[in-house]
From TrEMBL:
Keywords on record: Lyase, Pyridoxal phosphate
GO term, biological process aspect, one: carboxylic acid metabolic process
Domain of life of the native organism: Eukaryota
Any one annotated GO CC term: cytoplasm
Protein name, as recorded: Tyrosine decarboxylase
Positions bearing N6-(pyridoxal phosphate)lysine: 330
Similarity section: Belongs to the group II decarboxylase family.
GO terms of molecular function: carboxy-lyase activity; pyridoxal phosphate binding
Needed cofactors: pyridoxal 5'-phosphate
Organism annotation: Uncinocarpus reesii (strain UAMH 1704)
Entries under Gene3D superfamilies matching the protein: Aspartate Aminotransferase, domain 1 (3.90.1150.10), Type I PLP-dependent aspartate aminotransferase-like (Major domain) (3.40.640.10)
Signal peptide start and end residues: none
Length: 508
């Protein structure tokens, strides 16, 4: 007989460890480095426990292993204000505290059971607060849910769009509304007399293709309908031709915040209205991928200054969409994982996500406005992701989020205009004036070095300083660097100096 291992945590050292972790998370300054050193990584990899121990290590030794072996091998992507890779976001103190509560109480946000827990009500409230933050009317957005990220939200968007447009096409073809969720895509396509389903977008995020792959639409049927003179915008004539293709049903997906450039696919309400009108004319679903771009709507309340005009215009008209993706773990600065999804049609959602024959999962209360999350999203059991959302929104409010985003945009603009003046570097997409650059820069700066040799190595050279971290991408056929500013800890002057220092050193 092996001895049972005690699972009782030592409460005093737990509190000490917690305080130590809290200091790491909440310290607001730059970290010594943004990535672990090669030695730390090697050390961590070498000491990972390679086989399941028959007799467990016990709690104390496991804790020691995590703190001494695993933690030194982790990066500071979320903790450091100077990590500019992907769009990573940080974790606000309120969100961090809430996430700890989530772990301790481990609520399962599956079915709304009012007698058991307030968790589903909190999630419902958190989503309403988000609608308010984004200035979307809560009466219109009947299907709201918390997902694992923008990828999952895009899956929801295309799934709801697929359900809606194919069901409507079947009805137009004289067949009673046939649910794709119930009968499958093949049978509903046949009933609707259609050949296929396509997604029309401009430079969509890769996750949109992934969603199309998952849903039987096909990655090959995601088409970029980019204007010749500006690939970020729709060519509206071609969009109409695609929508009018006989035998095809369409979902139009607007890149509200293109991931390489941070720029927007639409430039104001009129353009959005035109796209909406085309969708109505050709029975297409209108989805918006606003993973980070939707946060531009927080800026709408800014006084009469023109500073953020172009960003506000880029997010105008989202209220006309059928479904919207947003990310929580990016600009909202809540911990991974957290995405957000809004759609107008609760019935469509239930037709897609219903659990068949699971009476035991039904919601107990009848006249109840909280829909059980398991009937409108992918998961059944899942984490109480909404608590950090709720906490951070009430802690900092509309003004707190506006101030955070303004700092992020100002830092991006500071860096972009500095790079614009450097003969060794170029900001992308190319602009003719600094004013144009200032106006169009959101919280992403895309740039390259003019010298091809330096440019080929630029991302590696920048990242090997470990002072800042940037993502590599390509633009117009050349390698390019991308700085995405998404952490609430931003300090414009301090962080500008750091970025400038790194870039100057490389061309000395
Ligand atoms: C990041 C991002 C996604 C994917 O988001 P995840 O949170 O990584 O799933 C989708 N669309 C856009 C525009 C993004 O920026």
């Amino acid at each position: 007989m092996t001895e049972p291992v005690t699972m009782e945590p030592d409460e005093i050292s737990l509190a000490e460890d917690h305080a130590a972790l809290e200091r790491v998370v909440l310290s607001s300054g730059p970290t010594a480095r943004v990535l672990p050193s090669a030695q730390d990584l090697e050390h961590a990899r070498a000491l990972l426990i390679k086989s399941l121990p028959p007799k467990g290590l016990g709690f104390a030794q496991t804790k020691d292993h995590l703190l001494k072996v695993v933690v030194p091998g982790l990066n500071f992507a979320s903790i450091s204000p100077n990590y500019y890779g992907f769009v990573t976001g940080g974790v606000t103190p309120a969100a961090w505290f809430a996430d700890n509560v989530v772990s301790v109480y481990d609520q399962n946000v599956q079915v709304h059971i009012p007698d058991h827990s307030v968790a589903t009500d909190v999630e419902h409230r958190a989503l309403k607060l988000l609608l308010d933050l984004f200035q979307l009317d809560e009466k219109v957005w009947a299907h709201t849910t918390v997902t694992s990220g923008a990828t999952a939200s895009n899956v929801l968007g295309l799934a709801c769009g697929r359900e809606f447009v194919l069901c409507a096409a079947a009805e137009r073809n004289g067949v009673d509304c046939k649910s794709v969720g119930e009968y499958g895509i093949v049978e509903v396509l046949r009933a609707s007399g259609l050949k296929g389903l396509q997604v029309l977008s401009t430079l969509p995020h890769s996750s949109l293709g992934k969603a199309a792959g998952i849903l039987g639409i096909g990655r090959a049927n995601v088409k970029s309908i980019c204007a010749n003179q500006n690939p970020l915008r729709f060519d509206l004539e071609r969009l109409e031709m695609e929508l009018a293709l006989p035998g095809m049903a369409s979902i139009v997906a607007i890149s509200c915040g293109e991931v390489n450039t941070g720029r927007f696919a639409t430039g104001g309400i009129e353009e959005f209205q035109k796209i909406r009108a085309l969708c109505d004319k050709y029975n297409a679903w209108l989805h918006v991928d606003g993973a980070f771009g939707i946060f531009g709507r927080i800026l709408s309340h800014v006084s009469d200054s023109k500073e953020f005009d172009s960003i506000r215009k880029g997010c105008e008209g989202l209220e006309l969409a059928d479904s919207i993706t947003a990310d929580g773990h990016k600009l909202l600065n809540v911990p991974y994982d957290c995405g957000i999804f809004f759609s107008r049609y609760a019935k469509t959602a239930q037709d897609v996500f219903r659990n068949p024959n699971a009476a035991y999962l039904a919601t107990s209360a009848a006249a109840d406005t909280v829909i059980s999350p398991n009937s409108i999203g992918i998961e059944n059991s899942r984490r109480f992701r909404a608590l950090p959302v709720y906490a951070t929104l009430i802690a900092y409010g509309r003004n707190g989020y506006r101030a955070m985003l303004e700092k992020q945009i100002r830092l991006a603009r500071r860096i972009a205009t500095w790079i614009f003046d450097q003969p060794e570097y170029a900001v992308l997409p190319r602009v003719s004036s600094k004013d144009e650059l200032l106006e169009n820069t959101f919280m992403v700066v895309l740039f390259s070095a003019n010298n091809d040799d330096l440019n080929a190595e630029l991302v590696n050279k920048i990242n090997s300083t470990s002072q800042i971290y940037v993502s590599g991408t390509s633009w117009d056929g050349r390698p390019a660097c991308r700085i995405a500013i998404s952490n609430y800890k931003v300090d414009v002057e301090r962080d500008f100096a750091r970025v400038m220092g790194v870039l100057q050193n490389l061309v000395k």
